[in-house]
Design brief:
The chain has about 400 residues and is of the alpha/beta class. The chain has a single domain, classed as Aldolase class I (TIM Barrel, Alpha-Beta Barrel), CATH 3.20.20.70. It contains 13 helices and 15 strands. The chain has helices spanning about 5-20, 20-25, 30-50, 55-65, 150-155, 185-195, 220-230, 250-260, 305-320, 335-340, 350-355, 360-375, 380-385; strands spanning about 75, 80, 85-90, 110-115, 130, 135-140, 170-175, 200-205, 240-245, 265-270, 285, 290, 300, 325, 345-350. An eight-stranded parallel barrel has the order 3-4-7-8-9-10-14-15, surrounded by five helices. Strands 5-6-13 form a three-stranded antiparallel β-sheet, with no helix packed on it. A hairpin with a 4-residue loop joins strand 5 and strand 6 (about 135-140). Helix 6 runs parallel beside helix 7, helix 9 (about 305-320) runs parallel beside helix 10 and helix 10 (about 335-340) crosses helix 12 (about 360-375). The two termini are about 20 Å apart.
Amino acid sequence: MNQSFTKNVIYTQELYKKFIGPILAKDEGFDAEQLSDIALMALSKASMYRQWPGISLVISQLKRDLQIHNVKLEQQLFGCHFNNPVGLAAGFDKNGIAAGIWDSFGFGFAEIGTVTWHPQPGNQKPRLFRLAQEKGALNRMGFNNKGAKKMGLTIEKQGLKKSNLRPTVLGINLGKSKVTSLEKAPEDYAASLEVLASLADYVVINISSPNTPGLRKLQDSNKLIRLIKKLKTIPLCPPLLVKIAPDLNNSEIDCLAKLASEEGLAGIVAVNTSLNRLGLEKRLISQTGIELGKESGGLSGDPLQGRAIEVLRRLRYNSVDLKLIGVGGISTPKSAWERIAAGASLIQLYTGWIFEGPILVPMILEGLLTQIDRHGFKNISDAIGTEAPWI
């Protein structure tokens, strides 16, 4: 444990490990989706009523314990000021119900969603499975969410309508409704963007989830170009990024990087969950009794580390003008630094944050600052794409 952490944050982490740790230490037991829903509901109440005296006191303490402020971590990207490069990945706060509180956990930005134009229940349960030993997860959620209109109302109710009044940079991740055909996909995404454009600092076009039938076909150049052009016609369209799959081959990655540059996208999020089982094909899912290689859904967490950084390096090599957000298997300060050094301007956490607890964000930020100093960089921006090793 870093000696610079306060007694409060150490105590918070110890509580997390004591009460949540035993649940996360095994695959079976408390349902993974139910556990996430309980936590998110509590956070949503805190976000909605964060100005109330009792709640504001707790939030203030959280900020003192988990936020790290240092000019060396700050960047200007997408027309926004990022206090630090560590963000919450899409998928956890699908409806934006806790959008006003993510900065309290030390995050420099948060990406909410994936949200679709039509509200949808998602796939049949159970649909989220822990891989405790590997610190990974398998999910086949299917973009379960309450729809773009509801998200817009939720954000406004939290007092987050104006960009300069938001606690932190807010990204929104858009997906295609399951009931919408691929041919009508541009109109479907555009309907969501029209409602949410003024509420987002940046928007991610999710065309890489493995859990909506046919969605990944939108990674085809012609389909993606048509989609991007449609979205750019929306008034107040924020900077657009695209989120890609880790399962693309090198030529497909190169093509997407070239397309993103030519179409004026602000960046690429790499990567989504994987259909590749990455050596875990025989791994048994205890809840279903079926091997991972025969289960549907996307793999996330530590097993994705190697492939995620390979894709990131390939993108950096082919698209130095694009900003990259690295996600997938980031669970330690070292893995975070490696993603920055490989070309990511920003990184995102989800599965690793769940397994490691609230201390992960400040641990990563402390680690990044240490590496910046050891390498003699003035700012985190100086380290991006340098392949500077962890020392």
